[in-house]
Write a structure and sequence with these properties.
This protein is of the alpha/beta class. The chain is 36% helix and 20% strand. It has one domain: Rossmann fold (3-Layer(aba) Sandwich), CATH 3.40.50.150. The chain starts with a helix and ends with a strand. Bound molecules: S-adenosyl-L-homocysteine and magnesium ion. S-adenosyl-L-homocysteine binds next to helix 3 and strand 2.
């Protein structure tokens, strides 16, 4: 089954960091994993990847939770490479991507399947109890932050469920190494590599 054409238009237009081919691979993975359990994303930003995952969740008959404090990663702050002035709240001078996320999901018609969870990823993980069909790690890319996401969330992936990791570059010339180290650790700990699409790597828990 292909992705809903109206969702695709919104996902492609949304602000964010998800090339279309990788977004479509996420959609496929989400739809495939749906029978195992709900999907969960770490790193919502403006809802771009959540729209692809939401389409997959709907196709597979489940939902996707997407976790973010909406204050941006280190690399999204003013002066850093991935900063966008439009997502700064003029009232406080702090980043706030929540209104953008809400608009993306509303425009995509996915409010019934994409559930925003607003908070620090590791705090949410500590109280989480539902086994996941798919976990997508795309939060902070500093080594300690990315590893903490893996540490606190990976155990929630159900047997047979999928783990997707974004921005995995095995060559340091192509990008930061933290997501690659997370991927290496997942492989060491028994997750089986399933597919690679650009910088998106999908693994399966045995
Ligand atoms: N998946 C998005 C991009 C995510 S960018 C897309 O498709 O475009 C990374 C996001 O992770 C940022 O919005 C940032 O606020 C969030 N983030 C970083 N560290 C976090 C943490 N410790 N807890 C919750 N969210 C975090
Ligand atoms: Mg990313």
């Amino acid at each position: 089954m292909g992705i809903d054409a109206d969702v695709l238009v919104v996902a492609r237009a949304a602000k964010g960091f998800m090339p279309d081919d990788e977004g479509l691979a996420l959609f496929e993975a989400g739809a495939m994993a749906a029978p195992v359990g709900p999907l969960l994303e770490v790193g919502t930003y403006c809802g771009k990847s959540a729209a692809y995952l939401g389409a997959g969740a709907r196709a597979g008959g489940t939902v996707v939770f997407t976790v973010d404090h909406h204050r941006g990663s280190e690399e999204n702050q003013a002066g850093w490479e991935h900063h966008d002035r439009e997502v700064v709240d003029p009232a406080t001078g702090r980043m706030d991507t929540l209104p953008f996320f809400r608009r993306t999901i509303e425009a995509a018609g996915l409010e019934d399947v994409v559930i925003g969870v607003i908070g620090e990823s590791t705090t949410v993980a500590r109280y989480w109890a539902t086994p996941l069909g798919l976990l997508f790690i795309d939060g902070g890319h500093a080594e300690d932050v990315a590893m903490a996401d893996y540490d606190t969330w990976a155990g929630h992936v159900a047997p047979g469920g999928l783990l997707a990791i974004h921005d995995v570059f095995d060559d340091p010339a192509d990008g930061g190494q933290a997501p690659f180290r997370v991927w290496q650790r997942a492989v060491r700990e028994g997750f089986e590599p399933v597919s690679t699409t650009g910088s998106l790597r999908v693994l399966r828990r045995r």
